[in-house]
Amino acid sequence: MVAGAAIAAALAVAGCAPAGYNAADYGNAAEPASNDVAASPGATADPAAGADPSATSDPAAEADPDATAPAGSDATTELPDDQVTNKLTGTAVKRMGEVVEDEDGWVLYRFDGDTNNPAKSNCNGDCAKVWEPALTNDGKPTLKGVSASVVGTVTRADGTKQLTIKGWPIYHYIGDKTPGQWKGQNVSGKWFVIKPDGAKNLTCLPAVSKPVAPPASESSDSGSAGGDISY
Q1: Range of lowest pLDDT (30-34, 42-46, 208-212, 213-217)
Q2: Where are the alpha helices (H) located in the chain, listed in sequence order?
Q3: Residues 101, 107, 108, CA angle at the centre, nearest 5°?
Q4: Average pLDDT over residues 46-53
Q5: Distance of CA 118 to the CA centre of its chain
Q6: Phi and psi at residue 5, to the nearest 5°
Q7: Cα–Cα distance, 192 to 202 (Å, whole number)
Q8: In angstroms, rounded to a whole number, what is the distance separating the alpha carbons of residues 153 and 169?
Q9: CA dihedral in degrees (83, 154, 205, 25; nearest 10)?
Q10: DSSP character at residue 1
């Protein structure tokens, strides 16, 4: 019975993982991630998710509308076009369901180490090299399937502006190798695919895994890849 349960758990995680992925990419494939990480405090079943009880919305996403900075409220250096996120698209991908993608189809994430009321990014240094902020110049990306009422900006520690959804700063994950992938889901038990309403998507929750290492030439801490990674 014990062996059978372990096999079933492994298959369940493998079935949850994106198509073409090895379940081992997510750490201990035989251990359901739900035993490793809890949903954020107050997370509840999303009535809009229909029959899928694992798709959750975060009441914290109903944040103070003043949590995000108005576009253009602070003067910042103009970033080149290849460094900014110009479009946000709310769409759906297999096994995960609702996601937000950028103009090139890359899935975006939110971080439990951040806050959304007030909005603040706490991912800097090596963290921001692994989880690249979705930066903006004017805070006005083209939107499809994402309401303008939930999109804002936050000024980062380095003075750049980052897009937010319902106050949550949003990021790309360098561990995703092709558009539509979401290998960042449940990394460190703190990173989750973000839904168009700003809630974390918990529909598919692979086992907790470590983030990929920062690019060797850019890492400010050469020992971080094998050490205590807090992001």
Answers
A1: 30-34
A2: 2-16, 126-130
A3: 90
A4: 37
A5: 18
A6: -65, -40
A7: 8
A8: 8
A9: 30
A10: -
Report the Cα 202 to chain-centroid distance in Å.
Answer: 11
Q: Per the structure block, which two tokens stand in for 113? A: 């180490």
8 A C-beta contact, residue 89 and residue 123:
no
Report the DSSP pairing between strands 87-93 and 142-144: parallel
Domain extent listing, the chain: 2-193
Euclidean distance between CA atoms 142 and 181, whole angstroms: 22
What confidence tier does 42 reach under pLDDT thresholds 50, 70, 90? very low
Q: What is the Cα–Cα distance from 111 to 64, expressed in whole angstroms?
A: 18
Nearest to 34 by CA among 180, 208, 174: 208
pTM score: 0.72
End-to-end Cα spacing for the chain: 37
Centre a 10 Å sphere on the Cβ of residue 110 and count the other Cβ atoms it contains: 30
Residue 48 amino acid letter = A
> If we measure between CA atoms, which residue out of 87, 122, 117, 80 comes closest to residue 103?
87
Q: How far is CA 187 from the centre of its chain?
A: 9
d(CA 197, CA 178): 24
Q: HSE-up of 138 (CA within 13 Å, CB side)?
A: 6
- List beta partners, residue 151: 165
- Answer yes or no: are the C-beta atoms of 161 and 73 closer than 8 Å: no
At residue 15, does pLDDT exceed 80? no
Q: What is the DSSP letter of 227?
A: S
In angstroms, rounded to a whole number, what is the distance separating the alpha carbons of residues 190 and 184? 10
What mean pLDDT do residues 95-102 have? 96
